[in-house]
């Protein structure tokens, strides 16, 4: 997913000592749907763990990223989701 790093918290560590970073991604795109085009905009809660969290903590807010990962429930019993980022790259224009 291509998105802008909209906000991020400070780098923290889990009780097991694993680096963790909570942040927000802002996505905008045009998608094909039912034979037409649909403009899509959304903000998404995201999480990075381990070395990727340390790398993302050094990225400036506002930077454009291409992120890869998966969606999972934010809380075990909740309905909201968090995008767990496993890989990212900075896009041109940063």
Task: Give structural notes.
The chain has 94 residues and is mainly β. The protein has one domain (2-90): Nucleic acid-binding proteins (OB fold (Dihydrolipoamide Acetyltransferase, E2P)), CATH 2.40.50. Helices cover 7% and strands 62% of the residues. The protein is built from one helix and six strands. The chain has a five-stranded mixed beta barrel. The longest helix is centred in the middle third of the chain and has 7 residues, at 51-57. The radius of gyration is 14 Å and the shape is globular.
Helix and strand string, N-terminal first? EEEEHEE
What's the N-to-C terminus distance?
17 Å
- State Rg: 14 Å
Which structural class fits the helix and strand makeup? mainly beta
How much of the sequence is in beta strands?
Answer: over 45%
Annotated CATH topology: OB fold (Dihydrolipoamide Acetyltransferase, E2P)
Q: Please give the domain count.
A: 1
**CATH class bucket:** Mainly Beta
CATH superfamily: Nucleic acid-binding proteins
Largest sheet, spatial ordering of strands: 1-3-4-6-5
Give the low-confidence spans.
Answer: none
Task: Compute the number of helices.
Answer: 1
Count of extended strands: 6
Arithmetic mean pLDDT: 95
Say what oligomer this is. single chain
